[in-house]
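Dear colleagues,

As part of the handover before I leave the project, I'm documenting each prediction I ran so the next person doesn't have to rerun anything. This entry is a single chain, and its sequence is reproduced below.
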Amino acid sequence: MAEPRQIIVPAGTGQAEALLLSCIDYRLPGKIARYMEGRGLAANYDHVILAGASLGATNSLYPHWAQSFWDHLDLAIKLHGIRRVIILDHRECGSYRVIFGTNLAGEEEAAQHARELHRLAREIGGTYPQIAVETLLMALDGSVETIA
């Protein structure tokens, strides 16, 4: 795990409340936008998209995805002074199926997502202790549950 980093926001840059990490799944962009708007965050967040969302940033099969996430997070902090990261996984995720080789559902699926969400949240907290992290799981109908 990297050493904690100091946040320095250059003068004259815009501000954004959060960085959202979500999946590439084509079924979800409108639902994700409505969810963020419903939280009062429309046009107030940076958006990073990786296959598998949290899994995209934690898996060892595609390690360069993690580097891309960390580079984007670092830049979002520097440019926009984000104060939190929202990690939004979703159910029936093909990336989880491909990377883990399983097709889980229900509570087993939620537990698998929780492991990756919590793993990434711990890594973010260890690197940027001043950044809050939310871990969420979206169903294909657009409903969202917090993964505590």
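The radius of gyration is 15 Å. The beta strands are 18-22, 45-49, 84-90, 132-138, 144-146.

All the best with the project,
I.
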